[in-house]
Design brief:
4-stranded antiparallel sheet; mainly beta
């Protein structure tokens, strides 16, 4: 089975990911650091270190986990190392309100209502979809 290794920059941002056959090397981190230079960490697809490395994401050496890239400046990292929006995504009505997306400029969720062919935004104060 192949192993993955993530190349980290000085800020622990993942800059590259390579695959190495595990029958070639017992320790992917040491192998990559000697062969390719730089700082490397092994990435796993089996849930070890919570999630695999992704280019643009980061590695937290204290928690020993890879963290996905922050999707928007307003989103914050929770205790499970997942990015959370300032306003939670509305639950339900998935059949009516499609193509939900975070609107960073207005700090709100938007969606398209296929029944009315109109765009809506989530009004957190009233817990309802409001036509844009």
């Amino acid at each position: 089975m192949a192993k993955q290794a993530a190349l980290l920059d000085a800020a622990n941002i993942v800059r590259d990911i390579i695959i190495v056959a595990d029958d070639i090397v017992p320790n992917v981190k040491i192998y990559c650091e000697k062969r390719f230079k730089g700082t490397w960490e092994e990435s796993f697809t089996d849930g070890t270190r919570q999630r695999p490395a992704v280019i643009g994401g980061s590695y937290d050496p204290v928690k020993d986990v890879f963290i996905n890239e922050q999707p928007f400046a307003s989103w914050t990292l929770d205790e499970n190392n997942d990015w959370q929006p300032p306003v939670p995504m509305p639950e339900g009505d998935y059949d009516t309100y499609k193509r939900r997306a975070w609107d960073e400029a207005n700090q709100r969720w938007t969606a398209f209502n296929q029944n009315t062919n109109v765009d809506y935004y989530w009004d957190a104060a009233t817990s309802s979809w409001t036509q844009i």
